[in-house]
Request: fold
Amino acid sequence: DKALEFAVASVEMEGYKADEQCLEWSKNALTGEISTEQYIQLGLQKAGVSAYWLILLMQFLTIATKVQHAL
Reply:
């Protein structure tokens, strides 16, 4: 949860706002419930609405993974 909190704060500083779906996917990717490939696929499906979501999801996963490994 600390990794996601850090990721939320980081992307919000960049002007992005994650919705609950993004947070759930990110948590699932970090816990291994879904693979990185599945995570990206979900982002691509949502990105059909806006590339904003794909950028946000990838930033979340990158930041949260780094923090998770550091903890």
User: Anything to note?
Assistant: The chain is about 80% helix and 0% strand. Helices lie at 2-13, 20-31, 36-47, 51-70. The radius of gyration is 11 Å. The longest helix spans residues 51-70.
